[in-house]
Design a protein that fits this description.
Largest sheet: 4 strands, antiparallel
Order of helices and strands: EEEEEEEEE
Number of strands: 9
Oligomer: single chain
Radius of gyration: 13 Å
Strand order of the largest sheet: 1-8-5-6
Helix content: under 10%
Low-confidence stretches: none
Number of helices: 0
Shape: globular
Distance between the termini: 27 Å
Structural class: mainly beta
């Protein structure tokens, strides 16, 4: 996270190695796990991206999670959620400074 914010682009996620990119285009997010590490001092906010945001339901409704340090959230996304595409692809994360978030996204 740089300057306290980052956007996860579901069409260009970092892979396991530095030269790998994961693209969820045409898939639906099935599960999303977010963890604010215990070494972070502040709350992290995770939610639908401001531009091209990815909604977690059929209507693409805005959503936000607030995670205290050493807390996590696991979301089972309904099958009615949108397919990842150009207009539905971003998840925004906001915090302070150089905090670290751990996440796992499963699509299919």
């Amino acid at each position: 996270m740089t300057a306290g914010a980052v956007t996860l682009d579901l069409t260009a996620l970092p892979g396991y190695s530095g030269d790998e990119t994961i693209d969820f285009t045409g898939l639906k997010v099935q599960f999303a796990f977010f963890r604010n590490k215990s070494t972070n001092a502040n709350v992290l906010s995770v939610g639908k991206g401001a531009a091209n945001g990815y909604g977690l339901n059929a209507a693409g409704t805005a959503w936000t999670l607030s995670l205290d340090p050493n807390s996590s959230a696991l979301i089972r996304v309904p099958n009615t959620a949108p397919d990842v595409a150009g207009g539905a692809k971003d998840i925004d994360i906001a915090g302070t400074g150089a905090q670290v978030i751990e996440y796992i996204l499963i699509a299919g």
